[in-house]
Amino acid sequence: MEIYLAQNAGFCFGVERALGIAHDTAKNSSIPIYTLGPLIHNPQVVEELRKEGIIPLENLDNIKEGILIIRSHGIPPSVIESAREKGLTIVDATCPFVKQAQEKAEMLRKADYQVVVLGEREHPEVEGILGFAGENAVCVNDHNNIKNFSLSNKIGVVSQTTQSVRVLSRVVSELVKNKREVRVFNTICTSTQLRQEAALKLAREVDCMIIVGGRNSANTKRLAQLVKERGIPAYHIETEKELEKGWFSDVDKVGLTGGASTPNWMIQRVIEGIRKLSETGLAYKGTDVKRLPI
């Protein structure tokens, strides 16, 4: 059995940047350090950060002093203001792509557009974007969802950074059917697009796909969803402990990718896990990790 690793897999620029900021803050500070929610959507990495003294919290109610690192997904401006009122030191680790989506939403609001945000309503990134988009902003998760809202004739559109261009295009096409003015900003990040394209390309060359990443990671879930929609057996796991021997029966080629918040060391653990399963009874041609041309 051969293992093929997608050309674009694992940490993206925004996640690496956020982790770098967090590590530097921990090294240079002697006061408590917090994040509102996990810094990134990977439980194993968040646990490592906890060991460095970076504590994720659900709210700011019981914090009296310290440093608040704004996570890579960003937070609403009202929450930032509340943190400042408490006297907390703000360290902004918001992903630049997420920051761009926030800025575009705010610009559209100030220009009197009703903002439509494509994304998952309960996702922290979307909650943050909506905070910049104004009270009359709405969130839709696909083009069929649009009919559930009463919208003005002047619409501005932004997207959660981990959405697919295909879904964004369908939403825009639906809006322009009935609205006089639709202004669109494609705020899907390039890293997301590259990972999706690489995963789909690899999926066409293998017998099954393993997608590694946090279950609370929107971009990882999207990778698994896109592969499954193409009819390829796909398994979303967080760690190598979830691998099952039965997945690899009669499989010659296994494809592997990781979400934008998946560390390389976890991807390597999964590779080793697949190798161990192979060594305990699965027929295989070789276990070298290879990269298919993208």
From TrEMBL:
<dbReference type="Pfam" id="PF02401">
    <property type="entry name" value="LYTB"/>
</dbReference>
<feature type="binding site">
    <location>
        <position position="261"/>
    </location>
    <ligand>
        <name>(2E)-4-hydroxy-3-methylbut-2-enyl diphosphate</name>
    </ligand>
</feature>
<keyword id="KW-0004">4Fe-4S</keyword>
<keyword id="KW-0414">Isoprene biosynthesis</keyword>
<keyword id="KW-0560">Oxidoreductase</keyword>
<feature type="binding site">
    <location>
        <position position="123"/>
    </location>
    <ligand>
        <name>isopentenyl diphosphate</name>
    </ligand>
</feature>
<feature type="active site" description="Proton donor">
    <location>
        <position position="125"/>
    </location>
</feature>
<comment type="pathway">
    <text>Isoprenoid biosynthesis; dimethylallyl diphosphate biosynthesis; dimethylallyl diphosphate from (2E)-4-hydroxy-3-methylbutenyl diphosphate: step 1/1.</text>
</comment>
<feature type="binding site">
    <location>
        <position position="189"/>
    </location>
    <ligand>
        <name>[4Fe-4S] cluster</name>
    </ligand>
</feature>
<feature type="binding site">
    <location>
        <position position="95"/>
    </location>
    <ligand>
        <name>[4Fe-4S] cluster</name>
    </ligand>
</feature>
<feature type="binding site">
    <location>
        <position position="219"/>
    </location>
    <ligand>
        <name>isopentenyl diphosphate</name>
    </ligand>
</feature>
<feature type="binding site">
    <location>
        <position position="219"/>
    </location>
    <ligand>
        <name>(2E)-4-hydroxy-3-methylbut-2-enyl diphosphate</name>
    </ligand>
</feature>
<feature type="binding site">
    <location>
        <position position="41"/>
    </location>
    <ligand>
        <name>isopentenyl diphosphate</name>
    </ligand>
</feature>
<feature type="binding site">
    <location>
        <position position="217"/>
    </location>
    <ligand>
        <name>(2E)-4-hydroxy-3-methylbut-2-enyl diphosphate</name>
    </ligand>
</feature>
<comment type="similarity">
    <text>Belongs to the IspH family.</text>
</comment>
<dbReference type="GO" id="GO:0046872">
    <property type="term" value="F:metal ion binding"/>
</dbReference>
<dbReference type="GO" id="GO:0051745">
    <property type="term" value="F:4-hydroxy-3-methylbut-2-enyl diphosphate reductase activity"/>
</dbReference>
<feature type="binding site">
    <location>
        <position position="217"/>
    </location>
    <ligand>
        <name>isopentenyl diphosphate</name>
    </ligand>
</feature>
<feature type="binding site">
    <location>
        <position position="73"/>
    </location>
    <ligand>
        <name>dimethylallyl diphosphate</name>
    </ligand>
</feature>
<feature type="binding site">
    <location>
        <position position="261"/>
    </location>
    <ligand>
        <name>dimethylallyl diphosphate</name>
    </ligand>
</feature>
<feature type="binding site">
    <location>
        <position position="219"/>
    </location>
    <ligand>
        <name>dimethylallyl diphosphate</name>
    </ligand>
</feature>
<feature type="binding site">
    <location>
        <position position="12"/>
    </location>
    <ligand>
        <name>[4Fe-4S] cluster</name>
    </ligand>
</feature>
<keyword id="KW-0408">Iron</keyword>
<dbReference type="InterPro" id="IPR003451">
    <property type="entry name" value="LytB/IspH"/>
</dbReference>
<feature type="binding site">
    <location>
        <position position="217"/>
    </location>
    <ligand>
        <name>dimethylallyl diphosphate</name>
    </ligand>
</feature>
<feature type="binding site">
    <location>
        <position position="261"/>
    </location>
    <ligand>
        <name>isopentenyl diphosphate</name>
    </ligand>
</feature>
<feature type="binding site">
    <location>
        <position position="73"/>
    </location>
    <ligand>
        <name>isopentenyl diphosphate</name>
    </ligand>
</feature>
<comment type="function">
    <text>Catalyzes the conversion of 1-hydroxy-2-methyl-2-(E)-butenyl 4-diphosphate (HMBPP) into a mixture of isopentenyl diphosphate (IPP) and dimethylallyl diphosphate (DMAPP). Acts in the terminal step of the DOXP/MEP pathway for isoprenoid precursor biosynthesis.</text>
</comment>
<feature type="binding site">
    <location>
        <position position="161"/>
    </location>
    <ligand>
        <name>(2E)-4-hydroxy-3-methylbut-2-enyl diphosphate</name>
    </ligand>
</feature>
<dbReference type="GO" id="GO:0019288">
    <property type="term" value="P:isopentenyl diphosphate biosynthetic process, methylerythritol 4-phosphate pathway"/>
</dbReference>
<protein>
    <recommendedName>
        <fullName>4-hydroxy-3-methylbut-2-enyl diphosphate reductase</fullName>
        <ecNumber>1.17.7.4</ecNumber>
    </recommendedName>
</protein>
<feature type="binding site">
    <location>
        <position position="123"/>
    </location>
    <ligand>
        <name>dimethylallyl diphosphate</name>
    </ligand>
</feature>
<keyword id="KW-0479">Metal-binding</keyword>
<feature type="binding site">
    <location>
        <position position="73"/>
    </location>
    <ligand>
        <name>(2E)-4-hydroxy-3-methylbut-2-enyl diphosphate</name>
    </ligand>
</feature>
<dbReference type="GO" id="GO:0051539">
    <property type="term" value="F:4 iron, 4 sulfur cluster binding"/>
</dbReference>
<dbReference type="GO" id="GO:0016114">
    <property type="term" value="P:terpenoid biosynthetic process"/>
</dbReference>
<feature type="binding site">
    <location>
        <position position="41"/>
    </location>
    <ligand>
        <name>(2E)-4-hydroxy-3-methylbut-2-enyl diphosphate</name>
    </ligand>
</feature>
<feature type="binding site">
    <location>
        <position position="41"/>
    </location>
    <ligand>
        <name>dimethylallyl diphosphate</name>
    </ligand>
</feature>
<dbReference type="GO" id="GO:0050992">
    <property type="term" value="P:dimethylallyl diphosphate biosynthetic process"/>
</dbReference>
<keyword id="KW-0411">Iron-sulfur</keyword>
<feature type="binding site">
    <location>
        <position position="123"/>
    </location>
    <ligand>
        <name>(2E)-4-hydroxy-3-methylbut-2-enyl diphosphate</name>
    </ligand>
</feature>
<comment type="pathway">
    <text>Isoprenoid biosynthesis; isopentenyl diphosphate biosynthesis via DXP pathway; isopentenyl diphosphate from 1-deoxy-D-xylulose 5-phosphate: step 6/6.</text>
</comment>
